[in-house]
């Protein structure tokens, strides 16, 4: 083994302050957004702490395994996107981001232990995406997020939904699909609209079981299309973007 290298350490691109500054964007509503998504980053770049006054931080679609406690230095941040990484836990310091409105943690490796209770201290949070993780339960303390409007908890290991969801007065949409919740045990959520969302990731970003399941589902879909009558298949002729609705939903969650 080469000197100075540790076994098992993820390899990734090194981000310099100059690169980070070049990744700064101005959103249509005048917010400063630091977009470091899909850059093969394996370690949280410390240099971006010098840009901690940004309003939005996007570190999605990388190889991050850990978010440091220093994340609390982003005091003005309103949007934090960490989807499609390899995070197994979050620091309690995330609860100090009291201006956070949107938090996307979809497609990581979070468990109940790795999700700190401080997440539910984010009083201004309106959108929380915990989909595609390894959660066995949603803490009842989620009822403290009175401003929450959109909640994604799909593709986890949930066996029930907390009753505290009923205490969320502004909740507009809930995606709880693909869990282990028995249909007869689901509490009535009449005012809550269930929505689906789509994430596009490289196959290399998927774990082996997920990739296997994806290929199996694709084969089933192809089989159904091949077996369908020709008249039904021709309904899609000339349709340029058959997945445009799903793309709109993706934009909603990001």
TrEMBL record:
Q: Is Repeat one of the keywords UniProt gives this record?
A: yes
Q: Which residues form the Disease resistance R13L4/SHOC-2-like LRR domain?
A: 71-178
Q: Which GO terms describe its cellular component?
A: cytoplasm
Among InterPro entries, the record links this protein to:
Leu-rich_rpt_typical-subtyp, LRR_dom_sf, LRR_domain-containing, LRR_R13L4/SHOC2-like
Query: What keywords are assigned to this protein?
Result: Leucine-rich repeat, Repeat
Report the PANTHER family cross-referenced here.
Answer: LEUCINE-RICH REPEAT-CONTAINING PROTEIN 18-LIKE, PTHR48051
Name of the protein in question? LRRC18-like protein
Which species does the entry assign this protein to? Osmerus mordax
